[in-house]
Amino acid sequence: MPELPEVETVVRSLREPLVGRCVESVWYDWAKVVKTPSAEQFTARLQGQTFHAITRRAKYIVCQMDQDLFAVHLKMTGRLYVSETDHPGDRWVHLRVRLDNGLHLCFSDARRFGRVYLINDMYEIAPNLGPEPLEADFTADILRERLNGRHRQIKALLLDQSFVAGVGNIYADESLYRAQIHPLRAADSLNADEIIRLHESIRHTLELGINHEGASINWYRKPDGERGESQDYFNAYGKEGQPCTRCGQPIVKIRVAQRGTHYCPNCQPEK
DNA sequence: CCAGCCCCCTGTCGGC
DNA sequence: TGCCGACAGGGGGCTG
Fold first, then answer.
1. Which of A117, A191, A214, A251 could crosslink A6 through cysteines, CB 3.0-4.6 Å?
2. Are A196 and A253 in a shared domain?
């Protein structure tokens, strides 16, 4: 569900309601929602800490507290939002943090893949994250260096968070479509021009996603409950059988790295 | 290093 | 209408 643009949208909307607030208490109905430390320790330690900053690293939401980092990964169907009531009418809320102004930070997740963490450093839970694709230091040269010697399918590599952080299934397809690169191409077979195009495309599609406040295909909603609009601007993802916006040929769907993969066989040639 | 599978879970949708 | 398999935006782990 949420990829970099959706997580970034959540982070931006949570800053105003959370920064400066103190945790009064923590409620959960399913201990496994807390990945580390134990749910009991998590609750005890988080209580009394104040939110100082809300940031994003890869697809993690990272809250800087007094002593710890409070991190959240939404995985496929997770949602994180502030509610004015402790009964938001959401049957999938598994963790609630009561704030000192009476509001609640709710973590909701239908599929229960999402997790929360209380740590000192992101390295504890994600030691091998790749570069942030929207940072200035993610240059085309860096991308070329990282592709060098990698023989994996380029789509599988884009999904690998140790290669580049934050790209998921949707934006991988959209990036390869825009760069006109077939998803099954070997990563080390891209020529200099294709690498420059891919670099520009990754950044462009992610920034566009953020500007449209994320994509709401199914579960994702902005913290205010509204749908993002990024999905209205997709060219490949979910467009199977529909005419390519560039050439008119039907978009094809295949499976790559066990994920549905959409591309234009005419604009993204196999070789 | 890499492809392929399984698993963690639940909801939705299309086919029969 | 009802059942059933396939599939879903993520990621960790194992095998060969």
1. A214
2. yes
Identify whether A133 is a catalytic site residue: no
- Dihedral angle computed from the Cα positions of residues A223, A31, A103 and A57, in that order, rounded to the nearest 10 degrees: -40
Tell me the two tokens of residue A127. 């030691």
Count structural domains, chain A: 2
Cα angle A126, A57, A226 (rounded to 5 degrees) comes to 125
Nucleotides of C under 7 A from a protein CB: 7-12
Catalytic residue among A8, A17, A59, A178: A59
Go through chain A and tell me how many residues it has: 271
Least Cα distance to A237 among A119, A158, A141, A136 occurs for: A158
Domain that holds residue A106: 4-124
Of A2, A5, A133, A223, which residue is the catalytic one?
A: A2
pTM exceeds 0.85 for this model: yes
Torsion of CA A12, A14, A17, A22, to 10 degrees: -130
- The residue written with tokens 């020529």 in the block is A191
Query: Which nucleotides of chain B have an atom under 7 angstroms from any protein CB?
Result: 1-11
Query: Can you give the pLDDT at residue A219?
Result: 65
Instruction: Tell me, yes or no, if A239 is annotated catalytic.
Output: no
A56-107 pLDDT, tens digit per residue, is 999 999 999 999 999 999 999 999 999 998 878 899 999 999 999 999 999 9
Residue A113 lies in a domain: yes
Q: Which of A94, A124, A154 is the last residue of a domain?
A: A124
Tens digit of each residue's pLDDT (9 = 90 or more) over A193-229: 999 999 999 999 999 999 998 887 766 676 677 778 7
pLDDT in tens, A157-179: 999 999 999 999 999 999 999 99
* Residues, CB < 7 Å to strand B: A 32, 91-92, 110-113, 150-153, 156, 187, 257-258
